[in-house]
Specification:
By secondary structure, the protein is α/β, with parallel strands linked by helices. It is 33% helix and 19% strand. The chain contains 15 helices and 15 strands. Strand 12 and strand 13 form a beta hairpin. The radius of gyration is 24 Å and the shape is globular.
């Protein structure tokens, strides 16, 4: 059954940094796909802006090229692309100066929802937010969208929040993390809270441990100097993996609303124990046969920045006491895979003496590639010869289960439309960002104080050998990447 697409209210979406890479690769194609799906009202508009001195026709040409390259517009009907471009306009604006703000204000319509997407560096967030307010472009019901990173540490995150809140109220600020827009992430909440099958078992009595993996096969080549100032902890753990941990560990909210959900996520972060150095492994990929290593990619031969992190995390509350969460993320690994694997405890009494203890129940929520949910179970091996046990999977890969019209949307498509609707459920709140940094900062500071070099690992591997010890010393093992 195909879900009916309901158009959102009329809007004016102003895209700052509209000529940049993120806008071309993700934001504009996502808007085009939602337009094709019939989710735009007839009078909605997209206004690009940047420092580039383009006119409307030149910008529409750039948009058309971007949609053909990244948005599948080549295979779309020409009338779809032409109709979408009719909604697009451009105003050059100097984010740090006075140029263009008057022209942008003149484009705004009083009866349209106003959303301002800041596809720019964090150093411009406060400046643009202030000018939107001072110029009268932003109204009391306008929305402002900002991309990660949300600060470099707790102090910078607080300063960034203060800059944004000086011009916008918290209910107007949408901190976008594309991981939260993935269909499977939201299905995790549906799986837990809309079914009586799993939630009674979702605790330390029945769950042995949880593994959260975000592995990437690509290196940092091309963005190494930027990455060298962040590392895997800041780039991935503090935000993406933290969000997946929160959604896995959170208590049921009183209702499905933005603040109720985010209240429970903040409680999880505040329940995290400090992580001792013995429960953390940092890694850095070396050179391979066909490409350079991290040090060359970062252009820093003395870098101690990690491209891999694995850690054992404890959530100190009644639901999760005694159930560890193992987190790992890294670059240049064997497979590109993002998943949450929930390992259930073995039955309290084993009546099958030949059972393989590694063949237990595991619920795997896959974010990429091939979004879906798989439950690993134990069944009788078919055929004669007595009772033999084997593993079997109950698989719900979305590409196989859903019709073409129901295929998962790109995360940006869902999140941008949520901005227009005014739904903040899948966006990070300011106190949530600060709580995550308050947990991460002491870990990073400990590394800086000790000045230990990360463990080397081979490109195309599963990370440093030392990372295997985290679960192994607890008589557990990592899931095979891509397995």
């Amino acid at each position: 059954m195909v879900s009916r697409v309901i158009p959102v209210q009329k809007f004016d979406l102003v895209l700052f940094g509209a000529t940049g890479d993120l806008a071309r690769r993700k934001i504009l194609p996502s808007l085009f796909h939602r337009f094709q799906a019939g989710q735009f009202s007839d009078e909605s508009r997209i206004i690009g802006t940047s420092r580039s001195k383009l006119d409307g026709d030149a910008f529409r040409t750039m948009v058309s090229e971007a949609l053909c390259e990244f948005g599948g517009a080549k295979s779309a009907e020409e009338k779809d692309l032409a109709a979408f471009l009719e909604l697009v306009d451009y105003v050059p604006v100097d984010a740090r100066g006075d140029g263009g703000w008057g022209q942008l204000k003149a484009q705004m319509r009083p009866d349209a929802t106003r959303a301002f997407y800041l596809s720019v560096g964090p150093s411009l967030f406060g400046e643009i937010a202030g000018r939107l307010k001072e110029s009268g472009i932003a109204t009391e019901d306008s929305r402002i969208v900002v991309e990660k990173p949300f600060g470099h540490d707790l102090a910078s995150a607080k300063a960034l929040n203060e800059d944004l809140r000086a011009s916008f109220e918290e209910h107007q600020i949408y901190r976008i993390d594309h991981y939260l827009g993935k269909e499977t992430v939201q299905n995790l909440m549906a799986l837990r809270f809309a079914n009586s099958l799993f939630e009674p078992l979702w605790n330390s009595t029945h769950i042995d441990h949880v593994q959260i993996t975000v592995a990437e096969s690509i290196s940092v080549e091309g963005r190494g100097e930027y990455y060298d100032h962040s590392g895997a902890m800041r780039d991935m753990v503090q935000n993406h993996l933290m969000q997946l941990l929160c959604l896995t560990a959170m208590e049921p909210p009183s209702k499905f609303s933005s603040n109720a959900v985010r209240d429970e996520k903040v409680k999880v972060i505040e329940s995290l124990e400090p992580v001792p150095n013995s429960d953390i492994v940092r890694g850095q990929y070396g050179p391979g046969l066909d490409h350079a290593g991290y040090l060359e990619h970062a252009n820093n031969p003395n870098s101690r920045t990690e491209s891999f992190v694995a850690m054992k995390v404890q959530v100190s509350n009644w639901r999760w006491a005694g159930t560890p969460f193992y987190l790992r993320t890294g670059k240049c690994l064997r497979e590109r895979v993002s998943e949450i694997a929930v390992y259930f405890r073995d039955p309290p009494h084993n009546i099958f003496p030949n059972i393989d203890p590694a063949r237990g129940n595991v619920l795997v929520i896959r974010l990429q590639p091939d979004e879906g949910i798989t439950l690993h179970t134990t069944i009788k091996d078919p055929g004669p010869g007595g009772m033999r046990l084997t593993g079997a999977k109950l698989d719900m890969t979305f590409a196989d289960t859903l019709s073409e019209q129901e295929q998962p949307q790109d995360a940006y498509e869902r999140l941008i439309m949520d901005v227009i609707r005014g739904d903040q459920t899948l966006f990070m709140r300011g106190d949530e960002v600060e709580a995550a940094w308050a947990w991460a900062d002491p870990i990073i500071a400990g590394w800086d104080d000790r000045r230990h070099a990360p463990h080397p690992y081979d490109p195309g591997s599963s990370g440093p050998e030392e990372a295997l010890l985290l679960p192994h010393r607890d008589h557990r093992h990592w899931r095979r990447l891509g397995g």
